[in-house]
Design brief:
The structure holds 2 protein chains of 2 kinds. Chain A is built from 6 helices and 16 strands. Chain A is α/β, with parallel strands linked by helices. In chain A, strand 1, helix 1 and strand 2 form a beta-alpha-beta unit. The model of chain A has no long low-confidence stretch (mean pLDDT about 95). By secondary structure, chain B is of the alpha/beta class. Chain B has one domain: Aldolase class I (TIM Barrel), CATH 3.20.20. Helix content of chain B is about 35%, strand content about 25%. In chain B, a hairpin with a 2-residue loop joins strand 1 and strand 2. Classes of the chains: A alpha/beta, B alpha/beta.
């Protein structure tokens, strides 16, 4: 069973629908005991970091997510879920986050240009991820696959060794990070067509071990 | 360093009482009237997103649309948006809970712009698309850009400058603009390039160009010369002139970055 963390950060049903399509049992829950019991946990979310952290602290789920990240249980962060895994986010006047992976989350600088054209913020649409090495979660994904992004802030891990994949949008940023049994992606696998579904399928079978 | 973000190709499906208003022809010229099946076909052809436009008038029809949205959300795993008749936060909430990524507000936002800001706070900027229907008029003191906002399919002029409205919507928190030229719509003679370029180069949020696509070259023009971030298409794919795959191959061959594998 995969548990999807419900911390009132946007609509979580799209992740559940994608898992249902893959015939992977899942539950959307805000209960720590259910998260602890699950074999795997997905930590999604859309919205703003400040509100997300407030909800996590008020519900006590902040400690639970940290504990799961340490426990060796497979944990997948998506979009806002990925961002709050870092130490801080520039969003909402510097938000203190979960501190599971060292580093910050920064806003795309205004006025980034490409061949004279202004790059739009949010970074919205399909973009590539250049993977560093191989990882069980990205098995079967071709190098030119694209994923759906929508975000105005991007992860900036302190340690290059935590970076799993990078994407270019005016700057090069970490669009996938990992540490042990935690993998976190900035894009939305549940909205990234067949290759996104493949990542979710790979996650549903992953035991948290990084060896191929 | 070069950005790799793809230009999006977005088919638009008009729905009335839960059915496509015009059938969509796919391989073998099979005419499909079911929006869920049509969405599935476009998803498989490589559509980057899908837009549903609900032109239902009755409240019963709107309930049917919610059911359509739910079935679409179980069938395709790319973003899709729903517009048409959205006037309140509750309208937005129903569509989002049914599984749409984004909600498009058009005349409802012209009548009361607060739906943009309130929608952005409640659901996030990325959920709120401003749909703009625009007609070319002479430049005047009131309409300095020469493009005016219209509603009711172009019958009612609102006295609002299109460029001003686009910037205002951006400030209010819209995450994206879907810019429809009423003059070009349905002509199959190409997008309104001047209008598209004017809006796309003057806002910081993405702009989807809409209205007028009749051939492959029209998409190339609007995505390069006119700087659109995405192209909305209807007849060109509904009537089987081109498939989305063919459009993407053509664009890619002409140097436009599009999503090539799916």
């Amino acid at each position: 069973m995969i548990a999807i963390v419900d911390y009132r950060a946007g609509n979580l049903t799209s992740v559940a629908r994608a898992l249902q399509n893959l015939k992977v049992p899942c539950v959307i829950t805000d209960r720590a005991d259910e998260l602890r019991r699950a074999e795997r946990v997905i930590f999604p979310g859309v919205g703003a970091a400040g509100e997300a952290m407030r909800n996590l602290r008020e519900s006590g789920l902040d400690g639970c997510i940290r504990e799961i990240a340490r426990s060796g249980k497979p944990l997948l962060g998506i979009c806002l879920g990925t961002q709050v895994i870092f130490d801080t986010s520039e969003e909402d006047d510097m938000t203190a986050c979960l501190g599971i992976i060292p580093g910050g989350v920064k806003r795309f600088p205004e006025g980034l240009k490409e061949k004279g054209d202004l790059l739009k913020i949010p970074h919205m649409g399909w973009n590539r991820v250049q993977f560093r090495g191989s990882h069980p979660l990205f098995a079967g994904i071709p190098g030119n696959a694209e994923f759906y992004f929508v975000h105005s802030y991007y992860p900036a891990p302190a340690n290059g060794s935590d970076i799993l994949g990078e994407t270019e949008y005016g700057i090069r940023f970490a669009s996938a990070v990992s540490r042990g049994s935690l993998v976190a992606v900035q894009f939305h696998p549940e909205k990234s067509g067949r290759f996104g579904l493949r990542i979710l399928k790979n996650f549903s079978r992953w035991d948290g071990d990084n060896a191929q | 360093m070069e950005t790799m973000l793809s230009k999006r190709i977005i088919p638009c499906l008009d729905v009335r009482d839960g059915k496509l208003t015009k059938g969509v022809k796919f391989k073998g010229n099979i005419d499909i009237g079911d929006p869920v099946e049509a969405a599935r076909n476009y998803y498989e052809q490589g559509a980057d997103e899908i837009v549903f436009y609900d032109i239902t008038a009755s409240s019963e029809g709107r309930d049917i649309m919610i059911d359509v949205v739910k079935r679409v959300a179980e069938t395709i795993f790319i973003p899709f948006s729903v517009g048409g008749g959205i006037r309140t936060l509750e309208d937005m909430r129903r569509v989002i809970l049914a599984g749409a990524e984004k909600v498009s507000v058009n005349s409802g936002a012209v009548e009361d712009p607060r739906i943009i800001s309130e929608g952005a706070v409640a659901f996030g900027c990325q959920c709120v698309v401003l749909g703009m229907d625009v007609k070319k008029v002479g430049k005047s003191e009131k309409i300095p850009s020469g493009y005016e906002i219209v509603i009711q399919g172009g019958r009612k002029y609102m006295g609002i400058d299109a460029l001003w409205w686009a910037k205002e919507a951006e400030n209010l928190g819209a995450g994206e603009i879907c810019l429809n030229s009423i003059d070009a719509d349905g002509t199959l003679e190409g997008y309104e390039l001047e209008l598209t370029r004017l809006i796309a180069t003057n806002v910081k949020i993405p702009v989807i160009a809409s209205g007028g696509a009749g051939k492959k070259e029209d998409l190339l023009d609007v995505l390069t010369t006119a700087k659109a971030d995405a192209a909305l298409i209807a007849s060109i794919v509904h009537y089987g002139t081109c498939t989305i795959t063919e459009l993407k191959e053509y664009l890619s061959g002409n140097g436009v970055k599009v999503r090539e594998v799916w």
